[in-house]
Amino acid sequence: MLLRAGPDRFLSFPREQHPIVLQIGGSNLNNLSKAAALANSYNYDAINLNCGCPSGKVAGHGCFGARLMLNPKFVAEAMSAIAENCDAPVSVKCRIGVDDHDSYSELCDFVYKVASGSPTRHFIVHARKALLNGISPAANRKIPPLKYEYFFGLLRDFPSLQFTMNGGVTCINEVNAARQCGAHGVMVGRAAYNK
Questions:
Q1: What's the number of domains the chain is made of?
Q2: Is the bond preceding residue 19 a cis peptide, omega within 30 degrees?
Q3: pLDDT in tens, 69-127
Q4: For the domain that residue 79 is a member of, what is the CATH number?
Q5: Is 63 annotated in the active site?
């Protein structure tokens, strides 16, 4: 979309919105590189790769979003390509697993392979797995159980990386509690604008 429609329509923003992060998605290294290069001149504070969306349009035949978690080697290559084409720090937004690939060891394998194979040092982790078959994206925000223990395990097991918690956070007290337990950040999405 970004490469077809022209950058200004999607990338320009008022200066007072800083700090601001651009999230991109895709499964084509060349296109991800081009998108990062286009975004670079707009001075985003960070570039994020979407490895968490469970939508059939994204993770289905498009083969990106949450489906990328099944291919950490590709994600590492993608993050390297993105980082080579922009000056901003890069990060990955992901789930704790996908379908039956939802053990803590598989999550650790994903994080390890992406971090060791690319400049990625920050992961935004939605603390529930993605179910790609049979339920809607909306149901994916409610049905798979939250497993915050996976998130806090990553903090313990990867002390040189940064992790932002996402999923199920609805109030400032929950944000503060997560921060006190070591979360580097807390992402509040729909709860912020549904109030």
A1: 1
A2: yes
A3: 999 999 999 999 999 999 999 999 999 999 999 999 999 999 999 999 999 999 999 99
A4: 3.20.20.70
A5: no
